[in-house]
Amino acid sequence: MLTVRAPATSANLGSGFDVFGVALGAPADVIRVERAPETTISVTGAGSQYIPENPKENTVGAVAEALDAPARIRIDKGVRPSSGLGSSAASAAGAAVALNELYDRGLTREELVSVAAEGEALVSGAAHADNVAPSLLGGFTIVAQDGVTQVDASVPVVACLPETTVSTRDARDVVPDRATMDDVVETVGHAATLAVGMAKNDPEIVGRGMDDGIVTPERAALIDGYDRVRDAALEAGATGVTVSGAGPGVLAVCRGSARRAVASAMLDAFDSVGIESRAYQTHVGEGARLYP
Ligand SMILES: Nc1ncnc2c1ncn2[C@@H]1O[C@H](COP(=O)(O)OP(=O)(O)O)[C@@H](O)[C@H]1O
Ligand SMILES: N[C@@H](CCOP(=O)(O)O)C(=O)O
User: Fold this and answer.
1) CA distances from 31 to 37, 47, 81 (A)
2) Closest ligand 2 atom to Cα of 83
3) Interface predicted TM-score (ipTM) of this complex, two decimals
4) Mutation choice for ligand 1 from 32, 120, 123, 135, CB with most ligand atoms inside 8 A
5) Distance from Cα 2 to the centre of ligand 2, integer Å
6) Average pLDDT for 257-264
7) DSSP secondary structure string, 131-184?
8) Mean pLDDT, to the nearest integer, of 75-96?
9) Residue nearest atom 1 of ligand 2, based on CA coordinates
10) Which of 10, 65, 182, 246 is close enough to 171 for a disulfide, judged by CB 3.0 to 4.6 Å?
11) Chain segment 92-109, per-residue pLDDT in tens
C-alpha cells in the first residue's frame, strides 16, 4: 500500500485567473492505494458525505483511468469540497502521485499535471490545472498554454472558509466573456507584480499584485459578507485579500507577525453577518508527499 499527502491549494490569487495557484501548508487530503483488478473508492473525512464513491464521478477515478492503473483507493478528506481550496484537485493530485508510483509509470510531476487535470474536467467542466499544479509541485505555480512554471515560496497566508459552499461549476458561469483593454492592462500589471513578489518571497509585493477587476467582483458577489471580511483583514494587517479559487473561501496574504490578528478579524467579520467560519493560519507550502 502507498500513501500520499496532497495539500489544499488556492487558485487565481485575484489577478491570475486560471493561471496562478499556491500550495498551502494545511489542510490536506491523504490518499492510500493498493493494486486491484478494478478501481474502487472509499471516502472519509471533511465533507465526505457530498463526495461520490463511484469512480466515474470522483476525480481520483478519472486519474486511475487516465493512468490505466486500477486500484483500491481510500481518500481521507482534510480539504472540504466546494470551499475554494482545491478539494477535488488535492484528491486528484494525490492519486496521480500514488498511482504513478504503484504502477511504476515513470511520469514526472510536471507530466502528472495534465493527468490530474482530467479529474477537474470531470467535476467543474474545465480541465483547469491551477489547483492540481501547485498540489503536485508545491510553492507558487503559473499554468500557461506551453507549460507550468514553479517557484518555491513560503509567504504567510490565512485561508478563511465560511460554512457556506459554492460549486466551481456554478462559479464559472459568472465569469465574464469579455474585458475592456483598460481592465486587461491593469490586471496584467498586478499579475506581474504578484509573480515577482512570490519569487522574492515578499508578502508586501504579493499583496500589491492581488487586485483584479475582471473576475473577482463577480465571484465576490456570490459570497455573503465578502466585503466586510476583506476590509477587516486589510485593517488587521493583510497585504492583500481575494476570493480563494472559485470561493467561498477568502485568502489573505500577510506578514507572519500579523497572521493571528488577520485570522481573528476574518472570523469576526463572517460572524458579524451570521456566518460561522474556520481560518487556517498557514503559508505557501510543499507539494504532494509520498510515504512508503
Ligand atoms: N475526490 C474528490 N474530492 C472532492 N470533491 C470531489 C471529489 N470527486 C468528486 N468531487 C466533487 O467535486 C465537487 C467539488 O469540486 P469543486 O466544486 O471544484 O470544489 P473544490 O474547489 O472544493 O474542488 C463536488 O461536487 C464533489 O462531490
Ligand atoms: N481557476 C478556477 C479555480 C477553482 O478553484 P476551486 O478551489 O474553487 O476549485 C476557477 O476560478 O474557476
Assistant:
1) 18, 15, 15
2) 8
3) 0.97
4) 123
5) 28
6) 98
7) THHHHHH-SEEEEETTEEEEE----EEEEEEES----HHHHHTTS-S---HHHH
8) 97
9) 18
10) 246
11) 999 999 999 999 999 999
- If residue 259 lies in a helix (H) or strand (E), which one and from where to where? helix 259-272
Which candidate, 86, 107, 110, places its Cα nearest to that of 98? 107
CATH class of the 2-151+285-291 domain in this structure: alpha beta
Q: Is 48 in contact with 78 (CB distance < 8 Å)? A: no
Smallest CA-to-CA distance from 139 within 281, 9, 6, 4 is with: 9
Can you give the pLDDT at residue 125?
A: 80
At 50, the pLDDT band (50, 70, 90 cuts) reads very high
Ligand 1 site residues, Cβ closer than 6 angstroms: 50-52, 58-60, 75, 81-84, 86-89, 91, 123-124, 167-168, 245
Arithmetic mean of pLDDT over the chain: 97
Residue with cell 492503473: 69
**Domain residue spans of the chain:** 2-151+285-291, 156-283
| pTM, to two decimals | 0.97
Q: Is the pLDDT score of 200 beyond 90?
A: yes
Q: Domain 156-283 maps to which CATH number in 2.40.240.10, 3.50.50.60, 3.40.50.1010, 3.30.70.890? A: 3.30.70.890
11 lines ligand 2 (CB under 6 A): yes
